[in-house]
Amino acid sequence: MNAPVAIAPDRTKFLGGSDAAAVLGVSPYATPVELWHEKTGRKPKDNSDPVLAKIRERGQKLEPFIREMVIDKLRDEGHRVELLACNQRYVDPEYPFLSCEIDFELLLDGAHINCDAKSVSGFARKKWGEVDTEDVPIEYAAQFMHGLMVCPGRRQRCLVAALRSFDDVDIFWTLRDDETIAAMRQKLVRFWLDHVVADVPPDPLVFDDIKALFPLDNGAAVEANEDIAEKVRQLREVKARIKAFEEAETALKFEIAEFISPNARLSFGGVDIATWKAQNDTRLDQEALRTAQPETFRQFTRTKAIRVLRLPNPKRGKA
């Protein structure tokens, strides 16, 4: 008999723990505008990023392993531990659009606590602080506080089990802070009611937000005020500086590469200061594909409108 397949909840119907960081503007993965696009169905959540997909898959596979490791560690330290639940989803009784799923829950020395399992690798390790503290990445802190807010019984702590090596699991904490929860709750509720339900986008935070909110132009012109005109002047100056630096970079690379050729490394005082090694670079030959398989090429070709912010030469008129 096949094992039952868990059906993922429709995330357009609620704000979960990972959404809290986006609403608060502290997520490295989504801005409030991007989250609004997802929750209103304008843009499905992008699951095509192979790096993020691999992180999610690894986390799901390692979660039982991390859970057992942290339970064993707590018992070895002399704590009384009982596993109460795994992957339980809770819904806020006042605002049903606030929801959370807790990786696992423990009865630790008589106290019911939330627990979250994280596998930490690569550069992400630098975002974590001292073990046994609350020094966790801010986007995770928002997620854990969201869980403490939604779960019943005013739980006071979330244990964070961070697997940073297969030899041991590090324990961090997020402690309940009612003042922070109250502020978070207000922002989450207002985001849902004022933006998702009202179908009104939140204010943009980054340039890509503006492009997402206004993918097409109306063909009209708008008169700049003095402040915006000054910013255009500053942007021209910045772009000129960037161009000058790019030209300087190109000239320096040419002189260094000419000196190195045909060697692979450049040393100074016996220490390598630059390398120029051959390496494979695999890319799709679009012209060859278009010629050999024109139907396939057309099938996978997509055209979309894009907007590019350009600064036309005032002496030449419009761009």
Can you walk me through this structure?
With 319 residues, this protein is an alpha+beta fold. It has 9 helices and 7 strands, in the order αααβββαββαααββαα. The protein folds into 2 domains: 195 residues, Lambda Exonuclease, Chain A (Alpha-Beta Complex); 74 residues, no CATH class. α1 crosses α4 and α4 crosses α5. It is extended, with a radius of gyration of 26 Å. It starts with 16 loop residues before the first helix and ends in a 20-residue tail after the last helix. 20% of the residues are buried.
Compressed to H and E, one letter per element, the order equals HHHEEEHEEHHHEEHH
Number of helices: 9
> Helix amount, in percent?
40-55%
Note the main sheet: 5 strands, mixed
CATH architecture grouping of the largest domain? Alpha-Beta Complex
Biggest sheet: strand arrangement: 1-2-3-4-5
| CATH level-3 fold name of the largest domain | Lambda Exonuclease, Chain A
Q: Tell me the distance between the termini.
A: 66 Å
**What is the domain tally?**
2
| Overall pLDDT level | 86
Shape: extended
Short description:
The chain has 319 residues and is of the alpha+beta class. It contains nine helices and seven strands. The strands form two sheets. A five-stranded mixed β-sheet has the order 1-2-3-4-5, with helices on both faces.
Keywords:
41% helix, 319 residues, Lambda Exonuclease, Chain A, single chain, five-stranded mixed β-sheet, two-stranded antiparallel sheet, extended, alpha+beta, 9 helices, 2 domains
